[in-house]
Model the fold of this input.
Amino acid sequence: MESASEINPESQYPLIPFPAHLQAQAGKFIIDENTVLQSNEKEEKVNLLLREFAQQIKTATTYTLAITPEGSQKNAIVFRLDKSIENTEGYALSVQVDRIVLRAKNPAGLFYGVQTLRQLLPLEFEKPTSSPQISWAIPAVEIKDEPRFPYRGMHLDVARHFLKVDKVKKFIDQIAYHKFNHFHWHLTDDQGWRIEIKKYPKLTEVGGFRSGTLIGHYNDQPHQYDKKRYGGFYTQEDIKEVVQYAAERFITVIPEIELPGHAQAALAAYPELACENKNYSVWRIWGISTNIFCPTPATFDFLENVFDEVIPLFPGKYIHIGGDEAPKTKWQESAFCQRLMRQEGLENEMALQSYFIRRIEKHINSKGKQIIGWDEILEGGLAPNATVMSWRGIEGGIEAAKAGHDVIMTPTSHCYLDYYQSDHPDEPVAIGGFIPLEKIYQYDPIPDELSPSEAKHILGSQGNLWSEYLPNFEQVEYMAFPRVCALSEVVWSPQDQRDFDHFVERISFHTNRLAAMGINVANHLYDLSSSIQPKDGAVEVEIEALAKDGQIRYTLDGGEPTLQSSLYSNPIKVTTNQQIKAQSFLAEKPIGRSWQQNIRMHKAAGKKIVLKTLPHSKYSGGGPGSLINGANGNPERYGDAEWLGFDGKDLEAVIDLGKKETINTITFRFFIGEGQWIYLPKSIQVFTSEDGLDFIEKRRSKTIEGDQKLVKHVIALDAVQSRYLKVVAENYGIIPKGRQGEGNESWLFVDEIVVD
Ligand code: ACM
Done:
């Protein structure tokens, strides 16, 4: 079989994340049975790295290499600590034909240099079994490398779905290989408490298990549950083992103990910590429970005791206390909370949350640790020493940095790896959203709004893997890779050197390497995506694959594309109803998934549209033209290039049909997803106009109904004649009590306005 390393010989340095400075050199160093590993360092960590690298070499090559003090002989790989290297995590790697020298200020830098060396070797180096026939060549190179950010994090939620220690270690290996240095371990939530606390055994005995789990997606109605007891937890010995394993890979583990919300599993174990003392069960459904910790002396005693057991297990400086998504209804209804607010002079429940967090911070600070909280901890006033994880957007991060607090950027727009990575209908079910590889790659964690001194508070960025829809580790890997690779360059590589096309060349090769490691990597590089835009009365369909080395072939007659089908080179112009099918080919073979799109031409398709209010930048589809391009978005989910999402705002659009037309109906396609706070509009108005200036109301519809995810709403106009149309779909408004996201603004999602 042809090996992938031979398919792509020009990619001599397919490194991810790409180093800060790399100078290609001629020739190569070859590891053979006489190669020696050398070091004069006494530090045990360095010797551990050498032994570890020797073991990896043995597994791949079968060679048992000697480890000796540094000498002058050839065919040696030297590890050296060098205080002249400035960055605490930086390294310099010199690969010459007869000698490799890896230098770093600290063992961490040597570790990163080893990861680079591994990636310079043929990908067979990463296979779990030896490949004796390979030439173990490392291309000559001079690398000087250091990270852009000191905080490079990946988060993993083990509360919604539990992962055993061996899987958590595998995840740590994978992120360490990409030079991440923090692992944020989300250990408690409404659906499970996963860390042993000896003083409170019921937290894991009761809180660690639920009686069943939601089947399918939250938006599938009615909700159905399996009846399987589900759960698990880590003993304190397990935790120590993971923390030690991570430390050997220069990863600091940050535990997250959620408060005051996402606490229902804890309340199932100790209901006296809630505002209403009744029976709670560990939650079987996804979302946000309104049952939260009550700020009583008993709760503070409990949480302090919990932290007193958690803190000694985690040597890093941070403890994450959650702080996100804590509905305040139970506090509003609680006489105790209202009295406490009056006593403490707290204006509202936000201030009470702030009081809660400050008390916890004080305790954690007294043990020598710092807190991190999700950006809701800004509401009601930030605790004095808190670091903020900005997730609902970047605004919280900007506010915190301007106030002099440290910030980790992890906005839902770029960093939520539980969101869909492809809009292909065959994707495994995910929570929603759409964050393809290029979206993550394009992320810059430093907001333009910050001055250079404020920007120093941005410690870095993190990817989040919430696990509602990640039932097993295979699915974790599928969602993580290759997007973690893109994020690794966001946090490691110099901003001015990042180039998506260069990344795509390397990720093609790197994907094969990850597969060789046994990672269930998602490979969508040859899948097709489209941009469909109205233009001069027609619709133009542009198709592309991320990888540019293939060919795209397509059909317009409904047939499956073959090597004989038309070769795609320019956008396809569509003027009548049309089905387009397309497929990537590489080396004369189909590669990637097949693609198809129906274009349904109607009186507005291809015409002009102007929006009065723009959709949210996260959900702006392919621009306003997506509403009149004859193409529908994925009927199962929003977030692709067809759907436009308006947060708390109405959809108000003026369509110019180009000439006076007879209009019988206008059909809207809306998406409902109460789990994602997406609602139907409250009303729809339709206006007509002769000149595009003065509009006359023609219809008003106040009953827009539907219980499926996708709702088509038709407005009949009885052969009205008009050139201009104005439509206003009124946002549902504030989400009512008792629903997911209560009290927040709802979203309105629409993908097409069909005029017939
Ligand atoms: C979050 O995603 N609730 C932090």
